[in-house]
């Protein structure tokens, strides 16, 4: 959900194993005329439409702007690089500082993880906090968008956004020929990757692709590190690089790795350079990630 490098850090610490417990359409009216949003941290009462939002997760920053609530965002975390007009600051979602956050006088704080007791610290000063963890499946990604729409008074916009996302994704999948292909999704140049049970793996699964890393995940984390020998032996049809920004990887560079020039994906032009952020932030730009996969599959099937 953040940059690929930050995403990799979360993977290795297991943060993305959290399960979302959001509410989506379960709208309740608060006594004050606001709303009650069912988030991962329970029922959160938001007294009125927030005008000073602090977002500590890039995907939520993107969502807020996609919903038309960008003007309500007064501060975003250090990794909120999209859209360009997002009020990016030195605030961190990894090491949240309550005093720094409070300094922006927020009437709503949105984050992905409750780290170092940040939720209680903000609740003590009566600041509503929505915890919306990294989605583990598509429905959770849509649900979190609906939560933010409800919280910001933009429920209709959230419903339209999720409907448009679903439509685009379904069309891409339907229009893409099915072929028995294998793939490798690279998180970093150390060959950390994902398995089919992860959110990313499920997206690839929409196209019927087979993940070469599934058998390598002995610990069951969903995010194993593949050995060079294992990858070369598996010889995937497609290789997706989600470390183009963080680690400067591209098709030409990986072709120079020892043994890689003989890989099927390298020889057949099946190395796909993804946008790190699009591939790791599962929000409004998710259809772009799906489209990139669809284009690669269609090319390989031609």
Describe the fold and architecture.
With 302 residues, this protein is an alpha/beta fold. It folds into two domains: 4-169, Rossmann fold, CATH 3.40.50.1980; 177-301, Nitrogenase molybdenum iron protein domain (Rossmann fold, 3-Layer(aba) Sandwich), CATH 3.40.50.1980. Helix content is 36%, strand content 13%. It has twelve helices and eleven strands. Strand 8, helix 7 (199-205) and strand 9 form a beta-alpha-beta unit. Helix 5 packs antiparallel against helix 6 (155-175) and helix 6 runs parallel beside helix 12. The model is unreliable at 1-27 (pLDDT under 50).
**CATH topology-level name of the largest domain:** Rossmann fold
- Model regions low in confidence, pLDDT < 50 over at least 5 residues: 1-27
Largest sheet descriptor: 4 strands, parallel
Number of domains: 2
Number of strands: 11
* CATH-scheme architecture of the largest domain: 3-Layer(aba) Sandwich
What best-fitting shape do the alpha-carbon axes yield?
elongated
Question: From N to C, what is the helix and strand string?
Answer: HEEEEHEHEHEHHEHEHEHHEHH
Q: Please estimate the helix content.
A: 25-40%
CATH H-level superfamily of the largest domain: Nitrogenase molybdenum iron protein domain
Strand order of the largest sheet: 5-4-6-7
N-end to C-end Cα span: 32 Å
Instruction: Name the beta content range.
Output: 5-15%
Whole-number average pLDDT?
90
State Rg: 20 Å
The number of helices is: 12
Broad CATH class of the largest domain: Alpha Beta
Output the structural class.
alpha/beta
